[in-house]
Amino acid sequence: MRTATVSTTLVLLLICAAGIPATTAAMVSERSIAVAMPVPEVAMEDSSDMDFSKLQISPRHSHTELMPGESDKVTVTVTNKDNKAISVAPMVKGQPYSEYIFDETWVTVTPEAAELEPDAKEEFTIEITLPDDAERGHYGVQIAFTDDVMPTPYPTPYPQYINVFNFHVSVWKPPVIQIQNSYIHDRVESGKEYDYQINLKNVGEEDIEIDPKIGGGRMYRHDMMLPAFEDDAITITAPSAVPAGGTATINMHLAVPAGAKGRYNGEIDLGIDDPSIDEWMGGVHLSFEVWTQPREPFVKTFTAETDLPITIEIRSDQGWYGECGSGNADEEEPYFDVTLEGSNGDVTPTLSKVAYHGAVDLGGGKCTPPWEVDSSGTYHESHTSYIERYTVDGAAGDWELGILPHYAERFEYTITIGDPD
Predict the structure, then answer these.
(1) CATH of 177-291, one of 3.40.50.1000, 3.30.2170.10, 2.60.40.10, 3.40.50.10740
(2) pTM for this predicted structure
(3) Distance between CA atoms of 166 and 253, rounded to whole angstroms?
(4) Which region holds residue 237: left if phi is over 0, alpha if psi is between -120 and 50, else beta?
(5) Mind listing the pLDDT tens digit for each residue in 302-323?
(6) Which residue of 177, 198, 228, 395 has the fewest C-beta atoms within 10 A of its own C-beta?
(7) 193-230 pLDDT, tens per residue?
(8) DSSP letters along 239-305, please?
């Protein structure tokens, strides 16, 4: 029997519970007292005295990805690090808490047994063969080379084998439905409407049902700002299925509410009845930034020390906004209203140069379905720049440049006094 130290508070509660007046109980010393109480003895074996077979197993873990009907094998070297001979007989055990139950008939270990003298080693071949109807998911299996288990002070649902090799198998299937594209990222304007398309192809031999719906996957910015608009600003029309060996188009219409500001992040759950597609892959991510046309120009003041001509160059880079967008780019070409005021009043800048710069990818880019790429869809312009150059007669003194951008997310300017080249 062991003794346990009980606090004064607990003693007082016990005394009061026994009917002793509280005034009498209060006379108990404030110090803790030792009360002889039976404490269950826990039989915990000293690890230094544990008697188990000491094997070195290399590797201890392995992982492979297989499709139903495929197989794979791994070689595991087992070395006797004990001072006595050890009988090794590999046992196939299920991996506790695996997502899916591994069928022990799927694994074969050769040789089936071995007698290892001290410092001797043996190579075991562990082969996994999946049946054609294996379900997609993550599996785990243990190969215990001896029946030695880790002792525990309490019952456990699964024994913890000591001399064990862990084999993890990810079973996957190629998707029957191909999605192009899996995201729509665009810059939109308050009060305007936009149309987008999502293309699907069924490479299987049976029709695949779909049920696209907006919602799910909503993500807010790190500052937890409310979205620029709600889900009801988006309308989706789509067929109920994608025919075997055929394609289908999902149409999405966005009506940006007047006065909307900020960003919107969401997702279209395509509702694809295809078990080969993970739940988080059967959707299209949406990301929109609501753009507002500035009313007042950007103003930059500078000083000219000489009467040399003044050249102003403005450049707008259009990034991947609209790369998989609505196709309204022709209506949103950037341009600038430029004003210039010197010490003698307003000066009208002369537009002396307009330049276009672009970057072109071959292969149709990220937004063209691979099954539709042909001679007319081989190229995809992923980046464009628009450049305007203005010149005026120079004069020494202070100047004020005004730039009002249209359909430009950002722009750069260069002011050159003298020869611009």
Answers:
(1) 2.60.40.10
(2) 0.60
(3) 50
(4) beta
(5) 999 999 999 999 999 876 544 4
(6) 395
(7) 999 999 999 988 889 999 999 875 455 444 456 889 99
(8) -SEE-TT-EEEEEEEEEPPTT--EEEEEEEE-----TTS-GGGSEEEEEEEEE---SS-EEEEEEES
